[in-house]
Specification:
316 residues; alpha/beta; Cobalt-precorrin-4 Transmethylase, domain 1; Rossmann fold; 3 domains; five-stranded parallel beta sheet; four-stranded parallel beta sheet
Length: 316
């Protein structure tokens, strides 16, 4: 009786996993713990990945949803998704020591929205309702100054305030194709609408989607390592399916691999969302090696060399 394991070729997407904004946010929490000692409070999950959150919690980070949970004079880190101006005012009023881990590319969107509003424009925010980044961006301006546009259908129904200029900004982790469809509608309906000075969808989101788009037709199915509340990870699954890989799915880590769905698969695509650490990708590879005779092929579409500086209070 043969005991030979089936062969499996894994096409490993690059770039994948942590982006510069996520790496910076995690480093801020780690450096804060080293510099100030625990506990260091983090408002919201620092990034959307349970493994990362639990690793930081084990080192002394305490994750909270509201600043009221942070004791007086406590050290608090704002997550990579950004926060509203109301949250910043609350932190200042309570004299909390704030370390801002907001991704610089999210901060760019905040500044764009404020700039447009100061120029007298009403701002459309293309993004997903309820996502922490969207909540933070909406909170940069008074109520009514921005209108959320979560879909193409909503873009077709928009009724902006009369007699004012218009502009749009975007959530940084959107599907590139989905966002383009919404922008096309806005530009058709409002020809004079002001656009961002540069693309709001972050470089990492774009690069990871592009890699998946090229990889999907070359594999039998594709796994995306990431969290269910991670927008950029969910968009990778959608991108793979739209590119013809209908069986693409999201997994949190190796324990979630749907082995039954991989029966008959000979070429497997593997990538990770921008908030998923490389250790989880390697865990999936090891799990596959335990069941298959694995050959790994790197599938690279672009090299990334982006780095963001830490806050001045931690950079010494």
């Amino acid at each position: 009786m043969s005991t030979a394991r089936p062969s499996l070729t894994i096409l490993l997407a690059a770039p994948r996993g942590f982006c510069a904004g996520v790496a910076r946010a995690v480093a801020i929490v780690e450096r804060a713990l080293a510099q100030f000692g625990g506990p260091v409070y983090v408002r919201h999950e620092i990034v959307h990945n349970r493994f990362v959150v639990e690793e930081l919690a084990a080192k002394g980070a305490v994750f909270v949803e509201e600043l009221a949970e942070v004791p007086a004079n406590g050290v608090v880190v704002f997550s990579a998704h950004g926060v509203s101006q109301a949250v910043r005012r609350e932190a200042a009023a309570r004299r909390l020591k704030v370390l801002d881990a907001t991704c610089p590319l999210v901060t760019k969107v905040h500044r764009e929205a404020v700039r447009h509003a100061q120029a007298g424009r009403h701002v459309f925010l293309i993004g997903h309702r309820g996502h922490p980044e969207v909540v933070g961006t909406l909170g940069q301006l008074p109520a009514g100054a921005l209108t959320l546009v979560p879909s193409a259908a909503e873009a077709k129904r928009l009724m902006p305030p009369p007699d004012c200029g218009l502009a749009y900004v975007m959530q940084t982790t959107l599907s590139v194709d989905e966002a383009a469809a919404i922008v096309a509608i806005l530009r058709h309906r409002f020809p004079g609408i002001a656009a961002p000075r540069s693309d709001d969808i972050c470089y990492a989101t774009t690069n990871r989607q592009q890699a998946v788009k090229q990889l999907a037709p070359r594999v039998d199915t594709l796994l995306v390592v990431g969290a269910p509340n991670s927008s950029n990870s969910q968009r990778l699954v959608e991108t793979a399916r739209a590119a013809g890989c209908r069986g693409a799915r999201l997994i949190g880590r190796a324990a979630d691999i749907p082995w039954g769905a991989l029966q008959g698969v000979r070429r497997l695509g593997l990538t990770a969302g921008a908030s998923a650490p490389e250790i989880l990708v390697q865990e999936v590879l090891d799990a596959c090696r335990a069941r298959y005779d694995v050959t790994v092929e790197n599938f690279s579409v672009i090299e990334e060399d982006v780095h963001f500086k830490l806050p001045h209070a931690l950079s010494a």
